[in-house]
Amino acid sequence: AVTSLFKTLALMGLVIVCFARASSVSHELMGPVAQVAGAAPSPFAGFVIAAQAVIYTYDGSSGPIYFSEELRDPARQIPRAMYAGLLCIAAIYLLVNIAFLTVLPVGAMAGSPLAAGTVAKALFGAKGDIVVRTVVVIALPSAVNACLLMASRVLFALSRDGLGPSLTTRVNVG
User: Fold this and answer.
1) Is 108 exposed, middle or buried (0-12, 13-18, 19+ CB in 10 A)?
2) Which residue among 72, 85, 129, 148 is least crowded, i.e. fewest CB within 10 A of its CB?
3) In sequence order, what are the residues at sequence separation of 6 or more whose Cβ sits closer than 8 angstroms to the Cβ of residue 122?
4) How many CA atoms lie within 13 A of 49 on its CB side?
5) Tens digits of per-residue pLDDT, 9-20?
6) Residue 118 burial (CB < 10 Å; 0-12/13-18/19+)?
7) At what angle do helices 74-103 and 2-21 cross, to 10 degrees?
8) DSSP state string for 2-52
9) pLDDT at residue number 166
10) What is the pLDDT confidence band of residue 102, given thresholds at 50, 70 and 90?
């Protein structure tokens, strides 16, 4: 929860700065519009490639299902957590995209591997990109941790039901 709060605050901070400083960004300094290498051969393929990022953004919304054993009223709490999570993610996603588009045109971000870094560079100079990449690196362990916790819950449940090694049914008190 702490790392999710950190990521949300970092994104909202960038959104606020985007809206506050968008008019002060010089688009001439950004150089020519980026050319995307290996552009999609068709509009449908382009849509599929773009959809991958969106799918990964919402991928964690099913996470509460893995921890349903630990809830007092899972039938009520899981749908609430999933819908609230999806709505929060959608709101953050839209806000971030609108904020980025107030700073830079789509063409300036098109070839960028990290749009947030490109926007931060336009707002703060070269150090802005470094700060954004540092925040991404700091946020990665929490994503890895969540994936490991969810995967281990599946193995635990399978083993408890006799479908996996009994060794994986042991859990420490902590």
Assistant:
1) buried
2) 72
3) 25, 29, 30, 103, 104, 108, 128
4) 11
5) 888 999 999 999
6) buried
7) 30
8) HHHHHHHHHHHHHHHHHHHHGGG--GGGG-SPPPPTT--SSHHHHHHHHHH
9) 86
10) very high
Read off the pLDDT of each residue in 98-106 and give the average, rounded to a whole number.
91
Identify whether the C-beta of residue 120 lies closer than 8 Å to the C-beta of residue 132: yes
Phi first, then psi: give them for residue 62, nearest 5 degrees. Answer: -90, 0
Question: Is residue 40 scored above 70 in pLDDT?
Answer: no
Report the alpha-carbon distance of residue 152 to residue 169 in Å, rounded: 10
A 10 A CB-CB count for 89 gives 17
Token pair listed for 122 = 């336009």
Q: Give yes or no for a contact between 152 and 63, defined as CB atoms under 8 angstroms apart.
A: no
Locate the DSSP E strands across the chain.
none
Distances (CA, A) of 96 to 16, 101, 136: 9, 9, 15
Please state which of the ranges 15-24, 58-67, 76-85 shows the lowest mean pLDDT.
58-67
